[in-house]
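Field log, afternoon session.

UNIT: design team B
ACTIVITY: writing a sequence onto a fixed backbone
BACKBONE:
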């Protein structure tokens, strides 16, 4: 089926088009620049930006794919989780298109859609798609049986188990406070590095010594981890707000002593703490659930140290790490279309047009039932 996917859960307006498992176009407009002076995504601004960007993004995507709305078999839209006002724009647009064209509409889960990119194969029509397969290493439209997904972005830090992408997805662990990307952004602000913080810290950390300071690894004490048999309450969960506070304290101490703040060392030590605990807990969750393949997703997948350490630890544990190209890791419409196509091919009924977006949609809801 030819499926149009719409994404508007955060600061990216995305429209993507797939034919079955073949990627045709992936058009994204981001309002990131408009949030810079606030040091984080401002929901109201993101919503307005979606409204501005939606129609041009849609037109560009259709034009590039060489198809019209008439040719489309179905529409898929991110229905949650995400910012309520931002989701509303994409959902309204999708409903209007569905009603006007009479095409079926699928209201789908953003997190599961991140895993959907792993299903895109290399159609001759798309160079992009062949990159996806080469890098992600997941085969033509079929996901490995024991698949996990590690999603790390500005809004999410989650480890999922996917037994079936259309109807069996389970949350193994998640952050209990800040997302990892959010921690990068907040720490970058403390260090005076600007927004978004991830790329700046990643770069600066290369000049620092990660061992110069030991920052806390959240939720790794025995009372949270338990044992392999009796699992603790947060064995596979993360917490980054204590780490952020520890960085702030550390900076204060240098300042109080009238010493120069070693920004590069702090960046390196902070990054090591984040990446250490993300990769160790993700690999533990995979090992203890018989997961053999892990797909990395979200904007923090760009982080060089996260890729390196997670890759090393996966290799030691006999797990394969799959990293799609970055434009398919960050929020986009193609992933939404890819999951929509899977739902259609699995014979799952569309969602109708009376659903409401759900900012805290659980991963167990892959698509909203009619
Ligand atoms: P969502 O949470 O809905 O998936 P988002 O817009 O919050 O979306 P993304 O756009 O996927 O998240 O990613 C943005 C985040 O990724 C920011 O927090 C940014 O700091 C972080 N990031 C980007 N590049 C890097 C990097 N090299 N290292 C660490 N973090 C990075
Ligand atoms: Mg974003
Ligand atoms: Fe996302």
């Amino acid at each position: 089926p030819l499926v149009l996917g719409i994404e508007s859960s955060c600061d990216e307006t995305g429209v993507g088009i797939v034919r079955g498992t073949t990627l045709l176009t992936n058009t994204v407009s981001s309002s990131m620049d408009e949030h810079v002076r606030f040091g984080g995504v401002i929901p109201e601004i993101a919503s307005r930006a979606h409204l501005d960007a939606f129609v041009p993004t849609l037109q560009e995507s259709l034009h590039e794919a060489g198809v019209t709305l008439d040719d489309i078999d179905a529409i898929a839209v991110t229905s949650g989780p995400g910012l309520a006002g931002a989701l509303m724009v994409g959902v309204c647009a999708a409903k209007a298109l569905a009603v006007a064209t009479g095409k079926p509409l699928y209201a789908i889960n953003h997190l599961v859609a991140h895993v959907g990119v792993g299903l895109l194969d290399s159609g001759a029509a798309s160079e992009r798609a062949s990159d996806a397969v080469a890098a992600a290493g997941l085969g033509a439209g079929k996901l490995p049986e024991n698949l996990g997904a590690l999603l790390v972005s500005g809004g999410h830090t989650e480890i999922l188990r996917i037994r079936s992408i259309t109807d069996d997805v389970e949350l193994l662990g998640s952050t209990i406070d800040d997302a990892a990307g959010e921690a990068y952004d907040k720490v970058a602000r403390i260090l005076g590095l600007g927004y978004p913080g991830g790329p700046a810290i990643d770069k600066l950390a290369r000049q620092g010594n990660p061992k110069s300071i030991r920052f806390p690894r959240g939720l790794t004490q025995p009372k949270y981890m338990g044992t392999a048999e009796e699992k603790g309450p947060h064995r596979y969960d993360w917490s980054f707000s204590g780490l952020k506070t520890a960085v702030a304290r550390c900076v204060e101490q240098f300042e109080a002593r009238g010493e120069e703040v070693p920004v590069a060392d702090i960046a390196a030590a902070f990054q090591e703490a984040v990446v250490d605990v993300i990769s160790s807990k993700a690999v533990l969750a995979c090992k203890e659930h018989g997961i053999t393949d892990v797909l990395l997703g979200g904007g923090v997948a760009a982080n060089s140290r996260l890729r390196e350490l997670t890759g090393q630890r996966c290799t030691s544990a006999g797990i394969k790490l799959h990293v799609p190209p970055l434009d398919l890791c960050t929020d986009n419409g193609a992933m939404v279309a890819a999951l929509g196509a899977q739902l259609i091919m699995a014979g799952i009924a569309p969602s109708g047009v009376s659903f409401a977006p759900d900012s805290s949609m659980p991963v167990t809801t892959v698509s909203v039932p009619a």
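LOG NOTE: The radius of gyration is 20 Å.
NEXT ACTIVITY: expression trials, pending approval
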